Amino acid sequence: MFSCDNARALSRVRRSIALRRGGRSRFRPKCLIGAIEAERLLTGVLNPLEIARVRTTDPYRVIDAITEAMRQDGVVHGFLVALALGEREVLVGRHPIAPTGGRPPGTLAFNDESGIVLCADLGATYSRFAACDLGGAPLSEVSDEIDIAQGPDEVLDWAQKHFADLLTGLGRQESDVRGIGVGVPGPVAFESGQPTSPPIMPGWDGFSIPDWFAAHYDTTVLVDNDVNIMALGEHWIHWRDREHLMFIKVGTGIGCGIVANGAIHRGDNGAAGDIRHIRLAENDSVLCRCGNTGCLEAVSGGRALAQRLSAEGIEAATSRDVVRLVRSGDPVATRLVREAGRNLGQVLAGCVNFFNPGGIVIGGDLAQAPEQLLAGVREVTFRRSLPLATERLRIVPSGLGDRAGVIGAAIMAIEHVLAPDAVDQVIRRGLAA
Ligand SMILES: [Zn+2]
Asked: Of 131, 342, 350, 409, which has the fewest CB atoms closer than 10 Å, so is most exposed?
């Protein structure tokens, strides 16, 4: 039968499965299969067939065999998490009403409250922070302003103070933090968490954000471009039924995050989705900071629109000013935003023919004038794309709004921390200790 070590490992699992009532978040990570039948969970480990399959004195092989059996059954990722996290109560009991009366079957669900994920969506000047549960639901949030050009030490020190305040406010400890997700307004080498030649982030090129946080937290820190995490958050919460999605952020500049086959597509070195410098025909008089002329961002980004309004004697410095003017009914601002939508549509029509997304989500400041911006986007995108590519295409404003970034950062961290391979590593470390 089982060796002493194996029996201890399994009894630890059983102890960690705390059968108690608990609520469930509406935010569901897809890697956690959901509710699990309690009896199946327990006998799945201990029934004679499973015992025969895992009979060995090697604890690693036991875990491998259980892992494989569970995966084949399509259940119980949460079980492996329970195993990995040892004594913590990571599963909670639920008792649905049995239609036939009598004792209802016990079920288990993942306990979202068994850890905290810290998230930061760092913008050029405006940033948002959140402490989320392991289901990706924000428990506490705060936003604040700092110029990202002040450099990594100053900005991350400031971010860490917000993280500490969020934890204190929730009565949680640094040891409760299971992962940190950070979005930054520039390209990132995802594997190392280092911004790569970010144009508006002086001093950040090659700076290791995970290493900086390692002094404060013993956990995984993941960093990505801000539009990528927005795309991830939006896909996770609102677009799970579509495998291919584009998220367009129209703010001061213009960015694009791509979800392909259900995952963020970053390209060979993190440059995928950079539609800012795609050339618009008939705008060659406009010089872009990249040195070319007629680039989408130079013509239709929020900063460009504000500059054009200023040139016409209308006071506007930022993309938020442009939105304010549109909302107040200013005809020039309204015309410019519609035109920006049509220009964006021209670029997106090419993207749609090339990539065939199921949805295009428009976020960022200018999406707060959705009727004006989206009217132009839809008009041109649908007119200039092939019918087959637009048959199921929907173009909509962001459903998460300002929160897309922090929720996406949480999902990024949770997906990593609770991924099967990561859980297996924790299990192995625990058994080796
Ligand atoms: Zn350019």
From this structure: 350
